[in-house]
Amino acid sequence: MMTNNISHRRDFMIEYGPEIHAARSRKRISQAELARRTGIYQATLVDIEQCRVGIDDITYRKLLDAINAEPNANSEAAA
Predict the structure, then answer these.
(1) CA-to-CA distance for 56 and 14, rounded, in angstroms?
(2) At what angle do helices 31-38 and 42-49 cross, to 10 degrees?
(3) Where do the H-state alpha helices sit in 1-79?
(4) pTM of the predicted model as reported, rounded to 2 decimal places
């Protein structure tokens, strides 16, 4: 089942795109593979990584879990 917990309202969701992209790149995981692991459309991952949409903390952690990465100490989800 594909999910899209995204929002075009920048005041509601947080932009974790650069962090997701960096973590994914460090682990050498393609967007297609991350999409498969999480059930999020690849096109949505592109939008997330390019900060066209924001994601909630649950989706952020879901992505990091699929990448096998820890939250950035500066992110709100790390608290």
Answers:
(1) 6
(2) 110
(3) 17-26, 31-38, 42-49, 57-67
(4) 0.72
